[in-house]
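User: Structure please.
Assistant: Input sequence and predicted structure:
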Amino acid sequence: MAFQPLGSDDCALATIRDFAELHGAKLNRGFCVGRSEVSEKVRCIGGFVKKKDLDVSKMQKGLVELLRVPAGATFSLETMLQFLDTESYPTQDAEKLTETSVKVKKLFFECCQIPVISSQASETLLLIIYFIIFSGLERNGYALPDPISHYLNGVLLTTEVGSLYSDAFVWKETTDIKLFAQYGFASIYSIFHALSEFSAANFGSENCGAIVSTLMASISSRCLEIPHEEHKGSDDFYVNTTLVPVLDYVNHDNKRVNAHFDVDRSTNDILLVLDMDSCPQNEEVFEVFISYFPVDEVIRFEKSYGFFPQPEGNRVSFMNLCFDKRFNAMQELDVFLFYKWFSVKPCLQFILKDERVYINDTLKQFAELLLPFVPDPRGGFQSCFTYNPNSYRTFACFTSKARGPSEDCFLEECKKLVHESEMNSSEVIGLPQLAWTCHFDAQGEDFARLTKEQCLEVLFGSDELYSRAIDTFQHYLRLYMNWRLYMLQEAKPRLARSSLNLANHESYVVRQYCQQLEQNLPVFWSDVENYENLELTDCALPPPLKCSSYAYKSPGEERQLPSSEEPLTKYPEEEFFQYASFFMKST
């Protein structure tokens, strides 16, 4: 890799050392910033080491400090208001900075009252809000403290990320958002839209969408989780989402990690430390790499960073393929309504290794995904689960039993509660599972409204049921994959750049899965030879979406279902006592 120093157009300051000095950072003289080739899609800056200039005089156990950034020079929710303290900037106009500080606090409070913002608040989102306000105020003539202004204009607004956030302002609602709603596009867009409206109303509408999108992308890609002691000398830590100037130029590569960031417990300074034993031995200039996450997962990286580290050698990477809920081939059972009641994330984890893909069937969540495909032990091909469209009657009955008045007093209230919980776009119901009856006895004598954990226990104690569920699921999955591939191909010409990257990743996994099926090659991880001895790092599935944008439909809305005259459970008393605390409260 050829080292390319930065030109004067890449940073508002003349040199990175001047920039570091402004933020109070200390750099090893062998550490510098230059053009990286880690990503071919966007201009990328990275941290580099020049061996001949590297100061190793304080090296300990093969570790060399490359960078030291004071905690007070980082941007987090703990430090943000400290930057607005006018006494910290004696060379700037105190009166103007006070005016800015008052305005920032007022606008920040107003923005946080927006329902979309308050319902999806996170540390990263709050940092985004601060810098949107800083940017808008500066455009309108307000003075900003020098560190904020330089970081805003020299880094955040000039960073080219290429992530999903980068393109939010050009997304087509009928193409990008619908095609990838299952990956959180709807939530991202709702936040982007709310922040754009807020920005336009307070600072003017010119170019505000592009600015908001740029700041969302830049901040989301540069935030680090910095550990802090609960108290001095404590072994307990909490983490703060933090922007660390200069350190945030350093790129990720789990294959070539040669450094890590840490905290000096005596000063709380943030450190970048080079591991000399992990450095290229034959390169005079080389790039510094840290690990953002211990595992490489396609969606998370494309979403936040606009790239995905390609797997090499025996390394394993992952893709958490979430299901597009517009597809439903099981006419007798709405699998996505089922998953919602049972709090199952509709997501299939693929393992990418040696140019092949495998479904990770060793996860507990995979077994959960199979549940609606378990056949009725009494025989036939129907699911062992039946849905009760009148489950609200059970809710009214249990509420009456817990609180006293007659069941009729609660019918309308419970009907509204269940209906609204089913119909909202969240991937989780959040109510006791009293809508689905599970038949788990071959003689048809045992059935109940079981929880997810109970279902896993009673259904998958049988290898035969598990095997039949796998077969039914694979039939469903083949239909889904063919449909999904068509949807991706049809939409590609109209997608934004980052959406197209995601479509290409998903198309590759889908095609490779189908090809392995056709060639009778393993498609499940547990079918890979000697898989138990292959190192497989845990890769968490994404959490359920609060806003999936999917319009759930009750089965009763499309066709008239029987009013559940057949018994719903053999264990009404046990089920009531299981959820008694819920029904004691107001519904």
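The two ends are 63 Å apart (CA to CA).
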